[in-house]
Amino acid sequence: MIRRYGLAVVAVVAMACVTTPASGRSQLNFLSVAQEIALGRESDQQIRADMSVYDDAGWQASVTRVGIVMAKQSHHPNPPWSFVVVDASAVNACALPGGFIYVTRGIVPFLQSEAELANVLGHEIAHVTALHGASAYSKQQLTGLGLGVGRILAPEKYGGVFGGLEVAMSLTLLKHGRDADRGADRLGVGYASSSGWCPAGMVGLLSTLGRLSEVLELSRGVPNFLTTHLLPEDRIAAVKDLVTAAQGPGAQTVNAAEFSGRLPGVVWGDSREQGIVRGCEFVHPILRIALRFPDGWEISNGASQVTAQPDGEAQAAVVLRVVPNASGGLAQVARTQMTAAKFTEVSGGETTINGLCAYVGTYRGEQEVVRAAFIAAGSTTSLVAGVAAAQAFGRAQGTFANTIESFRTMPQAEADQIQPFRVGQYTVWSGDTWTSTAASPAPRAVDPATLAIMNGATVASTPLVSVRIRVVIVV
Ligand SMILES: [Zn+2]
Question: What is the pTM of this model?
Fold first, then answer.
């Protein structure tokens, strides 16, 4: 998420080692139920503000519907229970004490049925009813790592790329222990089954997560499922036995076709709110800013900043981020930020970049040299910084200058035209492969392996002719 050259924010999160006692319960749980709910509510507001709620009333409603039915069947049927789809491309779900449960919009296209959704929610509900989260909270208190850690470091206003850092950190801190996850599987399968959904959904879900673990980049923005939950392979065998035991005589809903039919339109990858990478340009249609990164550099749209680096070379990087709480003149903002990041100004001055007021300077750190531009665009101040190891700065200087010069604001009409990738549907023709299907109609939006997994298959298989599959499209 934040690479070596993450400038202003270098947050070191000591991972609280969450070793759940063998009993799996509450040994470190110092919180009363009321405290749990209060803690959950507070963090809920933070998450909603920083990560933002995914703007899709239909999906919010269906996740809530399934979640509430199961919560009522759980060991703590009483409210508050809340189920929210957050606007994050990571594949994850998490729970806060007090019954606040989140799934990312990124996990939705990977679910093969409503039963799989039910089992995700069942697993998270179980983390709440078994007080796993509260226990993690208590440990955070013990180790002095409160949720407020990142608060002062991360910008407050924008979700996605320019916010969410602290949330990402807190979700990571909510990493569950081995026993906690096995326990949550067991309870979750039970909740799904007693609420009328097929418990085998958990097996399908874990298989998908297992396949994804081989292809997904885990470091983007919000941590993925695997960084906060136990590895799926380890859980599948145990879950299979539970499923057999949980399969009762009653009707058990799977709802695969209906569920898939509602997927088209779900945002895939970066959303407008997070800013979108298109070729070598990063565009943010909400902030109406754009930056062209050097040709061929690998761009990563992280939780707190966008970073670009030349392939396979760690000697240089360009980062773009919004400066939080920038007040005073640009010269002062530059001084404050760079001093805080332990850089000394070598030279610098006020200038304009594509008509925008800017302060551009060269700064020296312990081992790196930085060319940094603080640029005022509308109500935000952006930082574009080229960072290089001292001995590599000379070579990188021209590239840094070109990148900084490319920063621009965009007209509303251009911003309106920038649309995210979305899930679409496609009927397979003879000769189609996962590779050919991934190559169009939105090239490079999804790799063939991920596309196959989204369709419950592996990339080595051949998509079945005439079957309707999920694809990624540009609307
Ligand atoms: Zn879990």
Answer: 0.76
